[in-house]
Amino acid sequence: MSSALPAFDTHEVFNQPPPFGGRNLWADDVALDEAVQREGGAAFSMLLAHYGGVAGDLLYRLGFDANRDKPRLRTHDAQGHRIDTVDFHPAYHQLMDTAKTHGVAGLSWHDGSPGAHVARAALSYLHHQADAGTSCPLTMTHAAVAVLRQDPALAEWADKAAAPRYDPRDVPLADKHGITLGMGMTEKQGGSDVRSNTTRAEPQADGSYRLVGHKWFFSAPMSDGFLVLAQAPAGLSCFLMPRRLADGNRNAFRLMRLKDKLGDWSNASSEVELCGAWARRVGGEGRGVATIIGMVMMTRLDCMLGAAAEMRMALAQALHHTRHRSSFGRRLCDHPLMANVLADLALESEAATHFAMRVAGAVDRAGGDPAEAAFARISTAVGKYWVCKRAAVFVNEAQECLGGAGYVEESMLPRLYRQAPLNSIWEGSGNIQCLDVLRALSREANVLPALDAELDSVAGRDGGFDAALQALRSALAGSPGEAQARRITEQLALLLQAAVLLRANSPVASAFVRSRLGGEHGMAFGTLPADLDVAAMLARALP
Fold first, then answer.
1. What are phi and psi of 98, to 5 degrees?
2. In terms of pTM, does the model score above 0.70?
3. Taking CA 76 as the corner, what is the angle to CA 75 and CA 79, rounded to the nearest 5 degrees?
4. Which end of the chain is more exposed for a tag (fewer CB within 10 A), N or C?
5. H or E stretch including 202?
6. pLDDT the model gives residue 349
7. What is the 3-state secondary structure (H, E, C) of 99-137?
8. How many degrees, rounded to 5, is the angle at CA 471 between CA 469 and CA 477?
9. Do the beta carbons of residue 349 and residue 125 sit within 8 Å?
């Protein structure tokens, strides 16, 4: 009688795609490479190629661990002392360290050469594909430098925020090699209406302030310092509030809880009470919004970049899966209807990437070119609205390309889907962006000429574009009211995306104009015109 155990194998595993990781996200992305070259970042190509390899392999794997084990708040130690710390999975710190040392949060500032903002934007785009949660503190750290540099007395804060060093120790500024920065703007009663904030800033004899109040969303509470809006005697003002005081003691604020969020799991967001926390003012009293506006432009750009990055990763996942899985006798990607869906996604992704990098180029040149500064001013609001608005429906369509596998965490698509709505909410929701667009068009004299120059630069190249441009100008001539703000912003976004594709001589420019401006498209993805060369579009989208 045989003693061999029975075999329980019931089937052979086949028709499954190989693991996605181990790719170079820069080498895979023709559109990103072209956009960086066009916007003046060519000198940083080697850095971007290196980081693309790191992001597509090491950081891609770390992102799963950092999101699986969420941050935890520890308000007290074992002896009962108040400590208000946040514990993270080691993968979080490795993600932050790799990003910081490669310039994701500071290349724009510590390099400063032409194209540095473009390269930093591309680094952020690459990093966000591997892990979106860490992009939050990286973005705020980068953007805060624009505010801190307004005050020479804060040079050490600005320099250490920009430094390519990550130092997670909870120690005073003087003992740190590099720092991260968060922000506290939103309160329960106000939301986007920060002028309704009730947190008080009480002046002290030495010129400092004590902050008393609360913040409903206090981003990245483990940071070394925070930019906070509070009501000073002369009105809403901006303050830098350190986590640790110069003598090493904790500042007087308490973390009440961490937000239980839909997504963004690797990052911590909190509620905080300010109990006389020490702070110093940045900018003039009553000038809080004006002081922080430079930071807002940077964070809005990163919202665009993040949404474009989520689209890019979702597209890459969909293409990878459908190229390695077969049904009904051929690869999924070779079925004409699936190919139409994939090509439509590729078209949307390329337009988002080119547009985001065009805005990054404008930010890079804004300091020495008033026209580019004006274009950056309006295009960050336009792009923040539209690209972020498209991300959620885009990721859902990519999920469907994977079928049930796209609903399972191992595919990464559920994480992208949870993340996709965030950028449309953070830094001002859609209505805020669209109202800002109307406000800029009507009140800032240099904005409309900058837009006209951008759109006129490709006039005459495509009849569909010209017709859509004329329609927009007719709509603007009618002085549209608030109720039309979304419609106007959407039309403007599509025209700006088409313009950048046409100027770049992108092989997908005509398809974009026909489908997005010319009416040859339905309400859903996968409704491109039948005569397009979708095979060429897909070959361009991912090698």
1. -65, -45
2. yes
3. 180
4. N
5. strand 200-203
6. 98
7. HHHCCCCCHHHHCCCCCHHHHHHHHHHHHHHHCCCCHHH
8. 105
9. no
